[in-house]
Amino acid sequence: MRAFITIAFLFISNTFMTLAWYGHLKFKDMEWSKSLGLITIIAISWGIALFEYIFQVPANKLGFKENGGPFSLMQLKITQEAISISVFLIFSILFFKTEKIAWNHMVAFALIILAVFFAFIKK
To answer: Domain range for residue 55?
Structure first.
Protein backbone atom coordinates (compact mmCIF):
# COMPACT_ATOMS: atom_id res chain seq x y z
CA MET A 1 0.00 0.00 0.00
CA ARG A 2 2.88 2.39 0.78
CA ALA A 3 4.32 1.77 -2.69
CA PHE A 4 0.99 2.66 -4.32
CA ILE A 5 0.56 5.84 -2.23
CA THR A 6 4.16 6.85 -2.92
CA ILE A 7 3.75 6.42 -6.68
CA ALA A 8 0.36 8.20 -6.68
CA PHE A 9 1.78 11.13 -4.69
CA LEU A 10 4.77 11.30 -7.06
CA PHE A 11 2.41 11.54 -10.04
CA ILE A 12 0.37 14.29 -8.37
CA SER A 13 3.52 16.10 -7.28
CA ASN A 14 5.05 15.98 -10.74
CA THR A 15 1.82 17.24 -12.30
CA PHE A 16 2.05 20.36 -10.14
CA MET A 17 5.79 20.65 -10.82
CA THR A 18 5.23 20.50 -14.59
CA LEU A 19 2.49 23.13 -14.35
CA ALA A 20 4.75 25.37 -12.25
CA TRP A 21 7.79 24.97 -14.51
CA TYR A 22 6.12 25.04 -17.94
CA GLY A 23 2.51 26.15 -17.51
CA HIS A 24 3.42 29.83 -17.53
CA LEU A 25 4.68 29.41 -21.12
CA LYS A 26 1.00 29.26 -22.13
CA PHE A 27 0.16 32.51 -20.29
CA LYS A 28 0.73 34.45 -23.52
CA ASP A 29 -2.40 32.73 -24.87
CA MET A 30 -4.57 33.93 -21.96
CA GLU A 31 -5.93 37.46 -22.00
CA TRP A 32 -5.73 37.96 -18.22
CA SER A 33 -2.01 37.23 -18.10
CA LYS A 34 -0.63 39.17 -21.06
CA SER A 35 0.51 42.11 -18.95
CA LEU A 36 2.06 40.10 -16.11
CA GLY A 37 5.67 40.79 -15.28
CA LEU A 38 8.31 38.17 -14.61
CA ILE A 39 8.11 38.58 -10.81
CA THR A 40 4.36 37.93 -10.90
CA ILE A 41 4.85 34.86 -13.09
CA ILE A 42 7.51 33.59 -10.68
CA ALA A 43 5.13 34.14 -7.74
CA ILE A 44 2.35 32.23 -9.51
CA SER A 45 4.77 29.39 -10.30
CA TRP A 46 5.91 29.28 -6.67
CA GLY A 47 2.29 29.09 -5.57
CA ILE A 48 1.73 26.10 -7.84
CA ALA A 49 5.04 24.55 -6.74
CA LEU A 50 3.86 24.67 -3.11
CA PHE A 51 1.37 21.94 -4.01
CA GLU A 52 4.20 19.95 -5.57
CA TYR A 53 5.97 19.92 -2.22
CA ILE A 54 2.77 19.06 -0.35
CA PHE A 55 2.81 15.74 -2.25
CA GLN A 56 6.53 15.26 -2.92
CA VAL A 57 7.68 15.37 0.71
CA PRO A 58 5.11 12.82 1.97
CA ALA A 59 5.81 10.58 -1.05
CA ASN A 60 9.49 10.46 -0.18
CA LYS A 61 8.83 10.08 3.54
CA LEU A 62 6.33 7.23 3.05
CA GLY A 63 8.31 5.53 0.32
CA PHE A 64 11.79 5.64 1.87
CA LYS A 65 13.00 2.27 3.14
CA GLU A 66 14.45 3.72 6.36
CA ASN A 67 10.99 5.07 7.21
CA GLY A 68 9.32 1.71 6.62
CA GLY A 69 8.68 2.24 2.92
CA PRO A 70 9.55 -0.10 0.07
CA PHE A 71 12.10 2.06 -1.82
CA SER A 72 15.76 2.92 -1.41
CA LEU A 73 16.78 6.53 -1.88
CA MET A 74 18.11 5.80 -5.39
CA GLN A 75 14.93 3.93 -6.36
CA LEU A 76 12.81 6.87 -5.18
CA LYS A 77 14.81 9.39 -7.20
CA ILE A 78 15.03 7.36 -10.39
CA THR A 79 11.31 6.51 -10.20
CA GLN A 80 10.51 10.19 -9.63
CA GLU A 81 12.50 11.16 -12.73
CA ALA A 82 10.68 8.59 -14.86
CA ILE A 83 7.33 9.85 -13.56
CA SER A 84 8.43 13.44 -14.20
CA ILE A 85 9.23 12.66 -17.83
CA SER A 86 5.95 10.75 -18.24
CA VAL A 87 3.92 13.66 -16.89
CA PHE A 88 5.89 16.09 -19.06
CA LEU A 89 5.23 14.01 -22.20
CA ILE A 90 1.48 14.03 -21.52
CA PHE A 91 1.56 17.75 -20.68
CA SER A 92 3.48 18.66 -23.83
CA ILE A 93 1.14 16.62 -26.04
CA LEU A 94 -2.01 18.15 -24.50
CA PHE A 95 -0.92 21.78 -24.10
CA PHE A 96 1.89 22.36 -26.58
CA LYS A 97 0.47 20.98 -29.78
CA THR A 98 3.34 22.50 -31.78
CA GLU A 99 5.85 20.24 -30.02
CA LYS A 100 6.46 17.00 -31.86
CA ILE A 101 7.75 13.90 -30.11
CA ALA A 102 10.45 12.45 -32.34
CA TRP A 103 12.08 9.03 -32.33
CA ASN A 104 15.08 10.30 -30.36
CA HIS A 105 12.76 11.59 -27.61
CA MET A 106 11.17 8.15 -27.38
CA VAL A 107 14.61 6.49 -27.22
CA ALA A 108 15.58 8.87 -24.41
CA PHE A 109 12.35 8.06 -22.57
CA ALA A 110 12.94 4.32 -23.03
CA LEU A 111 16.42 4.70 -21.56
CA ILE A 112 14.94 6.44 -18.51
CA ILE A 113 12.49 3.56 -18.07
CA LEU A 114 15.44 1.20 -18.44
CA ALA A 115 17.17 3.14 -15.65
CA VAL A 116 14.19 2.42 -13.38
CA PHE A 117 14.44 -1.27 -14.27
CA PHE A 118 18.16 -1.34 -13.38
CA ALA A 119 17.53 0.58 -10.14
CA PHE A 120 15.24 -2.21 -8.94
CA ILE A 121 17.55 -5.15 -9.74
CA LYS A 122 18.54 -6.88 -6.52
CA LYS A 123 22.26 -6.72 -5.77
So the answer is: 2-119
